[in-house]
């Protein structure tokens, strides 16, 4: 006779939003004994990772559009690229204002290189840009304040 032990399904597994509301309520009243610490830690780690991923994705999008604006000669597209550059810069500023400690993360040369490589791969795969030369390395300042404020295409 085989006996199976049913895994107890937690609120976390059934309804994440209700689990979050419950955890918040427990924290507010100091009910730490019943707090689901293991899943709370997992969620907090996920939040930290999400912000770093979001920052890298935004940086990659920004670099992609900077590359297009600097190297693709298409006055018809300039306004759209600059609009995307401005929106993306604002989004990155918002993330950094909300979490200033991420400034250290965004200053990481490896992060910039990964974001640049992603952006370069995207622009080079675009069929409309087959005749455009995109340099293998970033030709401008990598300082985050410059990335967020400099119109590099004015120097090209």
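^ structure tokens above, recovered residues below v
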């Amino acid at each position: 006779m085989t006996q199976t032990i049913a895994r107890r399904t937690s609120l976390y597994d059934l309804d994440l939003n209700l689990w979050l509301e419950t955890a918040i309520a427990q924290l507010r009243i100091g009910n730490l004994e019943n707090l689901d610490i293991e899943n709370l830690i997992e969620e907090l780690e996920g939040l930290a990772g999400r912000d770093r991923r979001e920052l890298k994705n935004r940086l990659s999008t920004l670099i992609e559009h900077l590359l297009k604006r600097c190297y693709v000669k298409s006055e018809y597209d300039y306004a759209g690229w600059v609009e995307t550059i401005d929106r993306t810069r604002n989004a990155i500023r918002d993330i950094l204002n909300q979490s200033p400690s991420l400034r250290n993360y965004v200053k990481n040369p490896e992060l910039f290189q990964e974001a640049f490589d992603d952006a370069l791969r995207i622009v080079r795969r675009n069929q409309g840009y087959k005749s455009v030369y995109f340099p293998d390395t970033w030709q401008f300042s990598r300082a985050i304040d410059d990335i967020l404020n400099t119109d590099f295409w004015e120097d090209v």
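The chain has a mean pLDDT of 93.
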